[in-house]
Design goal:
Blueprint (H helix, E strand, L loop, with lengths): L2 H24 L6 H25 L5 H24 L6 H24 L7 H19 L5 H39 L1
Helix pairs in contact: 1-2, 1-3, 2-3, 2-5, 3-4, 3-5, 4-6, 5-6
Length: 187
Amino acid sequence: MNVPNALTTLRLLFVPAFMFFYLKGADGEITHGIWIAAGIFVLAAITDVLDGYIARKFNQITDFGKLADPLADKLMQIAAVGCLTYNGRFAAWIFYVFVAKEVLMIFGGFEILKKHKFVVYSKRSGKIATVVLFVMIVVIMVFEKIPKRVATVMMILCVVFSLLALFNYFQMYLNIKEDRERKKIGK
């Protein structure tokens, strides 16, 4: 296992640790649990950037990394949005929209891989949506006094960026499908 894949695996392990500390902290069972969870969340984001950088710089890109890296990101994001929703930090419908989008992305990515033997790569719109979501989640976690209405507006902004990214990925899928069909006809 190379370093980028080890970092991705570590990020997968961060998900249950994040949830444990956030939920125990929110319930008051662990002092500073939310802050520990926020630290885990930030550390996961740093390892995400680091593993991508190392994989590209040292040509250590693997099929495992292409699949597991976005999966680790999505699981951490769903866990964070879910924990914040559970804690009543913003409107619950945001969680459902967010999860539906992520499930579409996961199954769509696997479908493209299965049908077209193509691993979906991250696009700029997806990276922007991830950064916006990361910032909003950290701000909402750390500043517990933010009113629910303000946090809901912040998360609506995340939903907008996420849906724009979903639209861009759907366009990529259509382009891949069209390209594969043209190649079939050309044979």
